[in-house]
Amino acid sequence: MNEGTKYEAGIASDAQKNPVRVVFVSKKTSAKVKGDLGRQLMSYPNLILREVVAFQVVTIVLVVLALFWDAPLEQLANPLLTPNPAKAPWYFLGLQELLHYFPPIVAGIIIPGLVVLALVVVPYFNVNIRGEPLWATNSRRRFLIFVLLFTGALAFLGFFEAWTVLVPTLAVGALILIFYFIPQEGPKSVKSLRERPVSWWVMTWFLAVSLVLTVVGTFFRGPGWSWVWPWR
Amino acid sequence: MSELDAASTAGLQAASQVEGEIDRRDFLNEIAATALGIAGLGAMVVTYRYLSPNALFEPSMSFRAGNPDLYPVNSVSYLQDQQVYIVRTSEGFYAVSAVCTHLGCITQWKPESGRIACPCHGSKFQSDGTKVEGPAPRSLPHFAIVLTADGELKVDKMETINLKQVLKV
Amino acid sequence: MATTTFQQALAWLRATRVWKSIFRRGPARTNRTRSLAVFGNLFLHLAPVKVREQSLRVRATYYLGSFSFFLFALLTATGILLMLYYHPAVPRAYLDMKDLRFVVSNGVFLRNLHRLAAHLMVIAVFWHMFHVFYRGGYRPPHEFNWVVGVVLLLLTLFLSYTGYLLPWDQLAFWAVTVGTNIISAEPLLGHRIRFLLLGGNVVGENALLRFYVLHCVILPLAAGILIAIHFWRIQKDGGLTVQENPERKDHE
Q1: What is the number of domains present in chain B?
Q2: Are residues B66 and B146 in the same domain?
Q3: What per-residue confidence (pLDDT) applies to B9?
Q4: Is pLDDT of A17 > 70?
Q5: Is the pLDDT of residue C107 over 90?
Q6: Is residue A14 part of a domain?
Q7: Does A85 contact B106 at a Cβ distance shorter than 8 Å?
Q8: CA nearest B51 in C: which residue?
């Protein structure tokens, strides 16, 4: 294709010989052949019966577990006596661990608020939809930005002595940096990790921090929210 | 016939294009939307008022703490029902809240260390509520404490006072 | 073809006027009747009539969305049954929990099942969210469905949290005390929201009743409606996200 040529539209006098409607394909787009999405099957019976079976399996497993695993019941609620430690349900223990380092407005309102906001806007950012590998383009500039953000985050967390957040952040950040430095070739697993986009890394970081915070809050915190080793 | 059509079409166009004029349909629509909006807002306010209880079956926020002589000088007495410490120093009385300012757990007075300690996250306060250590953001608040006409201490938990204020008896 | 007595009886039943007035389509043996089985059913027509073969594989979704929904259904069923022996009053609620454990037939089992399903549902919806993210299921045209999903996640957490208070034991009471105190840390409306949520200044009988109504009526209704929208959007946006196979041309 001669990229320097400018194309102009016009209507030919002979409508039979020339198409009346013309489509322009500019430099930036290309006609995309949609790949095959696979064949379709009738929902009934293929989907419906699979779901019914899955439901039965789930029910059976849960019923068996419920026969043996008892739900706890402590003493009657006493507003005058606070148990030590007073722990939230397990899915909020990560938040409670965060509360140990940051004031309630930050750990309780701002951070969860930002997390929800970040989740909601995920599909509206082109960078997430395109999903190009993190270090594919502008790698030098991205590297500098990343190092800046990373050291900033570590300094911030270090200042607040939020070790349980700092450790997974350090681990994921180090992994990201490793993939900047290692060469293109390598085994398939390494290659697929190198292809991951920025959204993948951010979500993985979030998952890692949440897991560590929740596990620490559940098993490693005792009276007065002090550090305990669970096996002692 | 076509002249009438042309005239009415022109009339419709004219109403939407002339400044300050509005045709009947849009006018009625706007009136209706405004009315619905007012009704909606009103409904929300009424619902909010409905949901905020006016009568609470909770223990009274204001209570009597007995004769001042019950409390020796330089002592901290914990009133369990009210979750208040009556602190008497050489200067006078403070009514210190026993609810930790961090997340609302009930603190405990530890006479051996001279500190009020919170079991939840390890916050510690002096006997007058000043924060010493821990994640609590502020010192424990002081409630209004007065001496009634018949010589009893009265504490009002609805009213917090300046931390330096002391009741001299 | 040789038919059993049962099949003959079923065929006879199906030919009756009563049956035909209820079930319009006939046995689902042709593609037309199979389509009608989904399309003509009030509940099932949330699902598409045809699905991509790829999306049926366990590896595609691990059936996590379905798992979340099954748990919701189990929770609703066990929850309704538990409601019949529970008075949302202080201290009666706690005594009812003891009743369920020692006096009511299968009370222990029902409560265990309810609590187990509740904890699993929180795990399931989180896992479902992560998995949808990692396989790119939020990409257009599914953006709005992702947002509906996030709201459903918040509803699940709130449902679990309101349910947590209902046993009215020490664990419940203090977990909710801490949680509502966090809410009051919000600068603008924190205290007001806490006051509305608790129906007062302290976690007391008003709080228990409000959490009960939230847990049993308001939140399940909201969740149910959003779940229906969540399924409907999948159907309308062309089914679950599947991987394109670029080597093969689309034969359709």
Answers
A1: 2
A2: yes
A3: 59
A4: no
A5: yes
A6: no
A7: no
A8: C196
Contact A71 C111 (CB under 8 A): yes
Residues B93 and B130 in one domain: yes
Contact (Cβ atoms closer than 8 angstroms) between residue A228 and residue A221: yes
Out of A79-93, A149-163, B136-150, which region has the weakest mean confidence (pLDDT)?
A79-93
Same domain, yes or no: B83 and B112: yes
User: What's the pLDDT band for B2 if we cut at 50, 70, 90?
Assistant: low
pLDDT higher than 80, residue A183: no
Residue B26 lies in a domain: yes
Taking residue C82's Cβ as centre, other Cβ atoms within 10 Å add up to 22
- Could you tell me if C62 lies within 8 Å of chain A, comparing CB atoms? no
The minimum CA-CA distance between B105 and chain C, rounded to whole Å, is 7
Q: Is A152 on the interface with B (CB under 8 A)?
A: no
How far is the C-alpha of C249 from the C-alpha of C252, rounded, in Å?
9
Structure tokens at C16: 């009756």
Nearest to C65 by CA among C245, C252, C210, C240: C240
Residue B11 has pLDDT above 60, yes or no: no
Domain that holds residue B144: 62-161
In a domain, A202, yes or no: yes
Flag whether pLDDT at C131 surpasses 50.
yes
Q: Does A192 touch chain C (CB under 8 A)?
A: no
Q: Which chains touch A (3 or more CB pairs under 8 A)?
A: B, C
Six token digits for residue B23: 């045709």
Is A141 a member of any domain? yes
Indicate yes or no: CB of B80 within 8 angstroms of CB of A226: no
Q: Does B50 touch chain C (CB under 8 A)?
A: no
Q: Does residue B45 fall inside a structural domain?
A: yes
- From chain C, pick out residues whose CB is under 8 angstroms from the CB of A83: 170-171, 174
Angle at A59 between CA A55 and CA A60, to 5 degrees: 120
pTM for the whole thing? 0.83
Contact A59 C133 (CB under 8 A): no
State mean pLDDT over B91-97.
Answer: 90
Is the domain of B85 the same as that of B113?
yes
Q: CB under 8 Å to A192, separation ≥6 — which residues?
A: none
Asked if residue B127 and residue B102 are part of one domain, the reply reads: yes
A217 membership: H or E segment, kind and range: helix A198-219
Phi, psi (rounded to 5 degrees) for B137 = -80, -30
| Identity of the residue in B81, B103, B121 whose CB atom sits nearest the CB atom of A224 | B121
Separation in Å, CA of A223 to nearest CA in chain B: 7
- Restricting to A residues 98-157, those with a Cβ less than 8 Å away from any Cβ of C are 99, 103-105, 108-109, 116, 119-120, 122-124, 128-129, 131
Chains contacting chain C through 3 or more C-beta pairs under 8 A = A, B
Domain assignment present for B56: no
Print the domain residue range for A171: 90-225
For residues A41 and A26, give the distance between their C-alpha atoms in angstroms, rounded to a whole number. 38
Look at residue C50 and give its three-state secondary structure.
strand
- pLDDT tens track for B116-158: 988 877 788 998 889 888 888 888 999 999 999 888 999 998 8
Structure tokens given for C220 = 């399940």
User: What amino acid occupies position C150?
Assistant: V
For C:172-201, CB contacts with A below 8 A are 172-175, 177-179, 181-183, 185-187, 190
Number of folded domains that form chain A: 1
* pLDDT value of residue C249: 47
**Residue A53 DSSP SS3:** helix
**Tens digit of each residue's pLDDT (9 = 90 or more) over C23-51:** 888 888 899 999 999 999 999 999 999 99
| CB within 8 Å: C177 and B104 | yes
Q: What is the pLDDT of residue A14?
A: 65
What is the CATH topology of the domain spanning C59-236?
Answer: Cytochrome Bc1 Complex; Chain C (1.20.810)
Do β-strands B142-147 and A35-36 pair in parallel, antiparallel, or remain unpaired? unpaired
Question: Nearest CA of chain A to the CA of C59: how many Å?
Answer: 14
Contacts of B103 in chain A (CB under 8 A): 99, 104
Condensed to tens digits (0 to 9), the pLDDT of residues B21-63 reads 889 999 999 999 999 999 999 999 999 998 888 888 777 788 8
